[in-house]
Amino acid sequence: MDLRRGRDLNGRSMLHLAAKAGALDFCRFLVEKLGFSANSTSAHGETPILVATEIEDDEVDIVPVLRYLLARGGDPAAADEKGYTPLHNAAEFGHIKAVRLLLSKGVPVDPLNSRGTPLHLATAMDHDQPNRVVNHVLSPLMMACCGRSLKCMKLLVEAGADVNFKSPSGRPVLFQAVDNGITDIVRSRDSIMKAAAMASSPFEVAIEAAVNGNLLRLREIASTMDLRRARGFKGRNLLHFVAEKGRLDLCRFLIEESGETPILVATSIMEDRTDDVVPVLRYLLDHGGDPAAPDDRGYTPLHNAAEYGHHEAVRVLLSEGVPVNPLNRRGTPLHLAAAKGHDQAGADVNLKGPTGKPVLFNAVEDGLTNIVKFLLEVGADPNHGTLPIMLAAAGEQHEIVEILLPCTKRIPHFPDWSVDGVIRTMKNLRTEPQATGIDPHDATLFANLSLCWLRLGEGELALSNGQQCKALTPQWVKAWYREGMALSMLKLHRQAVEVFEEALKLDPSSEEIKKGLR
Hints:
The chain is built from 30 helices and one strand. The protein is mainly alpha-helical. TPR repeats lie at residues 477-510.
């Protein structure tokens, strides 16, 4: 039989597999004895040379196989159907000798593929983000950047790679390195970063200096341009970048230069860097920063500080007299924090969020036992439609049911008002609704049950209880709303629209119904 016709599931021949395995002797045998072509292609357009450069371990020497295939007429620049060339792979996986060999053959240094040029792809491998720039148009230089190979990048630059090549998002190689936190590349005094920094626009250099914490460089740039005009991703200015990094020294310098105060960004520093927040926050406040200014989504500094658990920052903001119950699309700061010990400031623990749920409901829904205890201690109402205990029981959260039971008004027709009894009743309602002794005329209870099942993702049960509620009280808008929401969960959208439209006839001003229709 002719072994040259054999193919694996990807259409690769035996020579492809031997090249990928680095099996030089086998490659020789296949080419010289059996007549395999060094330029044969797989179903995806891959040549043996291309697959030989796919080895991800940069300790493996792929050069002997490459030299042999090149000597047998293999094309060093042949790309597959996605535009990948051997130079892309060698740059991304850090095969320095292979990059040098391919460049010596005169291959193009800036070929584009679906992920880009080899220089762009080297900033993410050590940070578990190998696909950060997937679907962008990048170069071999950027691929070397994503593979975090400074040596490969230097080789490509020396060969003439464009250090200022930009992806469709407008970001050059230097920004790729900055974005992924590759400080040895950003800070390198070698030719690649010097060339990139020198060729980048002054604004790009200023942002790079801010992200990298380079105060000296910022001072130099400030002497030649107005730093307030520099804008980065999503329109962020330099102070946004340094505040997010918690750099007090750079904040001080930029404020003295520009007078801008993005306190909101400073309070969004993640939990593991909470010590960085307060010094920056105090400095910004001392220089006139508005402690309550919201962004276009309604987020205030208090929202951020509460959500990220910055206790001391919360105290600082509250001492400035900021409103404690500002409402945005996700709720109040207390909703976001669930509970961080801020009750003494007067936050309303019964205030409902945009979904109509108070904080206690959120805590029960998420199984946050300690937070449930705290909220009850500071005045949260456990009798909001009898829902908190029903929701906890439906989820068989024994500890939370035990906490809620003493302070919850007994629900009529629950035969056994004990922890196990309430849980058992809710469990029976899931499987044997007729065996529970529930009053078949209690419309409010069925409305609450429908909501419980809805929150637990039980669409059929939610629909059943919603329809029972509507049958009992056909003029009650809430009953129609429950049925409509259950139908939406079950993706019965046409029926849901019909139900919501009927409900709107009963109450044309109902925002709840209008939201359901949207």
